[in-house]
Structures are given as structure tokens and as C-alpha cells.
Amino acid sequence: MFLDLKDYPAPPPWEPQPEPPASRLTARQQRTLALLIGVNLILLLAAPIGGATLIAGLWALLH
């Protein structure tokens, strides 16, 4: 089978896509993120203790 490409235009030269600009956090977003990280760090320590207390309380109620 023959494919005639004489009148077919050549593809344009390849050019890489430009990098999108890096987004920056506003001051309010930075404070909110710091607050969320702080709360999560506190809960990382407090939640297992609270969970153990609830489990111990349920265990005592059932026995």
C-alpha cells in the first residue's frame, strides 16, 4: 500500500512547555498551616493517652 505525503505539511518544531510559576503562601495561609501543624503535633501526643483512657474505661464498664 502506498501513502502519498508530498502535500502534507511538516510538524512544527518541538518546544518544551514553560514551567508554571511557583505559587507562594500568603501570610495568613502560613499562619493557618503552622497552627494546623501545631494542633496535629499536640494531638499526636494527647490522642493515644486519651484513647487508652477510653479503652480502659470501657473495659472497666464491661467487667
Describe the protein.
The protein is mainly alpha-helical. It has one helix at residues 27-62. The protein is elongated. The model has no long low-confidence stretch (mean pLDDT 86).
- Termini separation comes to 85 Å
Strand content: under 5%
C-alpha-based Rg, rounded? 31 Å
How many strand elements? 0
Please work out how many helical segments DSSP would assign.
1
Write a brief structural summary.
Helix content is 57%, strand content 0%. It has one helix at 27-62.
Give the arrangement of secondary structure elements:
Blueprint: H1 27-62
Features of this protein?
63 residues; mainly alpha; membrane; transmembrane; transmembrane helix
